[in-house]
Amino acid sequence: MNKVILMGRLTRDPEIRYTQTNNTVVASFSLAVNRRFVKQGEERQADFINIIAWSKLGEFCGKYFKKGQQVGVVGRIQTRTWDDDQGQKHYVTEVVAEEAYFADSKREAESGASSFENTFGSSIPGTTSGGSDFEISSSDDLPF
Fold first, then answer.
1. pLDDT tens, 99-133?
2. Among 22, 90, 96, 131, which residue carries the largest CB count within 10 Å?
3. Residue ranges per domain, the chain?
4. CB-based contact 99:75 (threshold 8 Å)
5. Which distant-in-sequence residues (6+ apart) come within 8 Å of 129 by Cβ?
6. How confident is the model at residue 139 (pLDDT cuts 50, 70, 90)?
7. pTM of this prediction?
């Protein structure tokens, strides 16, 4: 059985493309998913998981998902390989979404507390981290 259930925050707005053969919508985005345990004396770690959503689900994700939102995704793991122009082999592992859900509370979404900057350690005076499990200071290098 190949089934994946993830909950995390979007690291960027979904990118929408269309297939060349039959113009099918495909949305791609990445989720920052917190690891369950924290080693003593270390900050919480997150994994950055690439997600692909096809057709109607891809349209939904492209239209309604925005950077920083907490979402849930149910899908399957897929691996692909290809050779580039220089003959170098590339490998990629991604989750093909079969279902996608909003996971922010309605109150967070309405108040703006779910924005990426507030949730992941904003330095805006008078704001809090929104109850996030980890924070990133503005001086950290972000992978996205």
1. 999 998 766 666 554 444 443 433 333 333 344 44
2. 96
3. 4-36+44-119
4. yes
5. 118, 119, 120, 121, 122, 135
6. very low
7. 0.70
* Sequence-ordered list of residues with C-beta below 8 angstroms from that of 133, at least 6 positions apart, any chain: 34, 44
**What would the mean pLDDT of 25-39 be, rounded to a whole number?**
94
Question: Which structure tokens are listed for 74?
Answer: 């149910």
In angstroms, rounded to a whole number, what is the distance separating the alpha carbons of residues 131 and 134? 9
Does domain 4-36+44-119 fall under CATH 2.40.50.140? My reply is yes
Span 51-80, mean pLDDT?
96
The CA-atom distances, in angstroms, between 51 and each of 1, 8, 77, 130 are 19, 11, 9, 25
Instruction: Give the CA-trace dihedral at 41, 47, 48, 51, to 10 degrees.
Output: -160
- CA separation for the pair 19, 113 (Å, rounded): 36
